[in-house]
C-alpha cells in the first residue's frame, strides 16, 4: 500500500532530510533586519525550489515586504483540501554571547540541532514539505488536495500575508489548515493545541507639567505623572487576581467541565513549574489552577514602565511624562476592540487630576481561537500522531497568540490544526534555539500519515 512505501521512503531519506534542514538553517533570513533582505529572499527561493523539485507548481508572490511562497496540487477531486502554513523568516540572534555555537552554523548536540530557526519555524515547517515529497516520490500523487502558503514576515507582524489572504480567499479556499509552530506538552508527550488566547496590546502616556521640575520646589503643588500612572496600574487588578475593568468578563466563555477534568489529568506539577521559572510563588486569578489560568483565563500584564530619571545616582526630579505598555491575553468570545473601549474608559475614569492622557495607543490585537475537537480533521490528526509518535496526543490550550490562526478563520472560515513538534525549552527567540532531530522525523511521519487519514475523513 502507498503508506508503507511512504514510510520506507522516510526511513531511507533521514540523512538527506537532515542535510536539507541544515542548509535551510544556514540562511540568515532575519526579516527584521534590512541588511539581510537578500538572505530572506534566498530562504524563500529555497522553499520554492524544494517544492518545484518534488513536483509542485510553486511560485514566489511579490509583496510590499518579503515574498510569499505558494504552491498547490489538486490530485484528489472530491476529497478534502488542506492548507499548509509556515514561515521561513527568523528572529534576530542577538545577543550573540550566550550562543554555544554560531546561530547560523547548525550544530548537533545530544540529539538536538542548534540554530536560529531550528524550531521556529524552519524545522517544524519543513516536516510538512518532506511529507509531501515522500508521497510524490513514491505514489506520484497526494491523497488529498494541498495548498502551501509560506510567508517571510511572521516575525515582524505578517502584514503582507494578512493583505494577501484578505484579497485571495477563493485561491486559498480549503477545508482545513495545519500549522506546526508550537510545542508538545512535554518530551514524549505529543499534543494537539485546540485553543489559543487572543491579544490586546496598549500603550498609555500621561503628561503633567510642560517640563521636568525640581521635586522639592514643586512637589506637593504639581501632580507627578509617575505617581498618577501607578494609581492607574494598581487599579487594574484586585488582590484576588481578577481584572477590575468594568465589563471585562462579560463575554468570557467559561471552561467546560470536560476541559477542567482533562487539564487536571495532565502530568503537571505546580511545584516543578514554579521551580523551573524561579518564582517565589505562583499567583493568579483565584479559583483556578495554574494550567487553567495560563491557558483559558484572561490576563492583564504590564510589559514595561518608563518615566523620570533612570541614570545612576539620585536626581530629585518631578517628571513631566510617564508611560506604560500593557497586554491583555484574551479568551474565546472576548473582542479586542471591545476590550480597547473598556480599557480606555477605565483609564479615563481612574486617571488622577493634575495629569492628562497624552497618548492612548492601541498597538494591535487578535481574537482568541478555539477549535472543535470533534471534527474529522482532528480525528485524522489523532490517528496520524499515534502513527508518528507511537502514542495518542494530549489536548491542550496555549496562552500565546498566533494571529494567522484567527486570520484564516476570519477570512477562509476554516479551523487550523496546531500540531506542534517542538518542546517548551527549545529557546525559540532566545539563544541556543534547538529542535529534537527525533521529533523532526516523527513530525515528518505524522504529517505523511495525516494526509492519508484526512483522505479517509
Task: Give a brief description.
With 457 residues, the protein is α+β, with helices and mostly antiparallel strands. It has helices at 2-12, 14-25, 37-54, 118-138, 159-167, 215-218, 225-234, 257-265, 270-277, 290-296, 336-350, 376-389, 403-412, 437-456, and strands at residues 57-61, 68-73, 81-87, 107-109, 112-114, 145-151, 176-179, 191-196, 198-207, 213-214, 299-307, 317-318, 321-330, 356-366, 369-370, 394-398, 416-418, 434-436.
Overview of the structural elements:
There is one protein chain. This protein is of the alpha+beta class and 457 residues long. It folds into two domains: 2-196 and 368-456, Zn peptidases (Aminopeptidase, 3-Layer(aba) Sandwich), CATH 3.40.630; 198-252 and 298-365, Alpha-Beta Plaits. Helices cover 37% and strands 21% of the residues. It has 14 helices and 18 strands. The protein has a six-stranded mixed beta sheet with strand order 1-2-6-3-7-17, with helices on both faces. It has a four-stranded antiparallel beta sheet with strand order 11-13-9-14. Strands 4-5-18 form a three-stranded antiparallel beta sheet. Strand 1 and strand 2 (68-73) form a beta hairpin. Helix 1 (2-12) crosses helix 4 (118-138), helix 1 packs antiparallel against helix 14 and helix 2 crosses helix 4 (118-138). It is globular. The model has no long low-confidence stretch (mean pLDDT 96).
Amino acid at each position: 500500500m502507498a503508506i508503507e512505501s511512504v514510510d520506507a521512503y522516510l526511513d531511507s531519506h533521514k540523512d538527506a532530510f537532515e542535510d536539507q534542514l541544515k542548509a535551510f538553517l544556514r540562511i540568515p533570513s532575519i526579516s527584521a533586519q534590512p541588511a539581510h533582505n537578500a538572505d530572506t529572499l534566498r530562504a524563500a527561493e529555497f522553499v520554492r525550489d524544494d517544492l518545484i523539485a518534488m513536483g509542485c507548481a510553486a511560485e514566489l508572490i511579490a509583496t510590499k515586504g518579503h515574498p510569499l511562497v505558494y504552491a498547490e496540487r489538486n490530485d484528489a477531486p472530491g476529497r478534502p483540501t488542506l492548507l499548509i502554513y509556515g514561515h521561513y523568516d527568523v528572529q534576530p540572534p542577538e545577543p550573540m554571547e550566550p550562543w554555544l555555537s554560531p546561530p547560523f552554523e547548525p550544530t548537533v548536540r545530544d540529539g538536538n540541532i542548534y540554530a536560529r530557526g531550528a524550531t521556529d519555524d524552519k524545522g517544524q515547517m519543513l516536516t510538512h514539505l518532506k511529507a509531501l515529497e515522500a508521497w510524490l516520490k513514491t505514489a506520484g500523487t497526494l491523497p488529498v488536495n494541498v495548498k502551501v502558503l509560506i510567508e517571510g514576515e511572521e516575525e515582524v507582524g505578517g502584514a503582507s500575508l494578512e493583505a494577501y489572504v484578505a484579497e485571495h480567499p477563493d485561491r486559498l479556499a480549503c477545508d482545513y489548515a495545519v500549522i506546526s509552530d508550537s510545542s508538545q506538552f512535554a518530551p514524549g508527550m505529543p499534543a494537539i493545541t485546540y485553543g489559543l488566547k487572543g491579544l490586546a496590546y496598549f500603550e498609555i502616556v500621561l503628561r503633567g507639567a510642560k517640563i521636568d521640575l525640581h521635586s522639592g520646589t514643586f512637589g506637593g503643588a504639581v501632580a507627578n505623572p509617575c505617581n498618577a500612572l501607578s494609581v492607574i496600574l494598581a487599579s487594574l487588578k484586585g488582590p484576588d487576581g481578577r481584572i477590575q475593568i468594568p465589563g471585562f468578563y462579560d463575554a468570557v466563555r467559561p471552561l467546560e467541565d470536560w476541559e477542567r477534568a482533562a487539564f487536571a489529568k495532565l502530568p503537571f506539577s505546580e511545584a516543578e513549574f514554579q521551580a523551573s521559572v524561579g518564582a517565589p510563588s505562583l499567583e493568579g486569578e483565584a479559583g483556578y489552577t495554574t494550567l487553567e489560568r495560563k491557558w483559558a483565563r484572561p490576563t492583564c500584564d504590564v510589559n514595561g514602565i518608563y518615566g523620570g530619571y533612570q541614570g545612576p545616582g539620585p536626581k530629585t526630579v518631578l517628571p513631566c511624562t510617564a508611560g506604560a505598555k500593557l497586554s491583555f491575553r484574551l479568551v474565546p468570545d472576548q473582542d479586542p476592540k471591545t476590550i480597547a473601549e473598556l480599557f480606555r474608559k477605565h483609564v479615563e475614569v481612574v486617571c488622577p487630576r493634575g495629569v492628562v492622557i497624552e497618548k492612548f495607543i492601541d498597538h494591535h490585537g487578535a481574537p482568541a481561537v478555539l477549535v472543535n475537537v470533534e471534527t474529522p480533521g482532528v480525528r485524522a490528526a489523532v490517528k496520524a500522531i499515534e502513527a508518528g509518535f507511537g502514542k495518542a496526543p494530549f489536548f491542550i490550550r496555549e496562552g500565546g497568540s498566533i494571529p494567522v490562526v484567527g486570520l484564516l478563520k476570519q477570512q477562509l472560515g476554516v479551523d487550523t490544526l496546531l500540531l506542534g513538534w517542538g518542546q517548551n525549552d527549545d529557546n525559540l527567540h532566545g539563544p541556543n534555539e534547538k529542535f529534537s532531530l527525533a521529533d523532526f522525523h516523527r513530525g515528518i511521519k505524522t504529517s505523511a500519515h495525516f494526509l492519508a487519514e484526512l483522505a479517509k475523513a
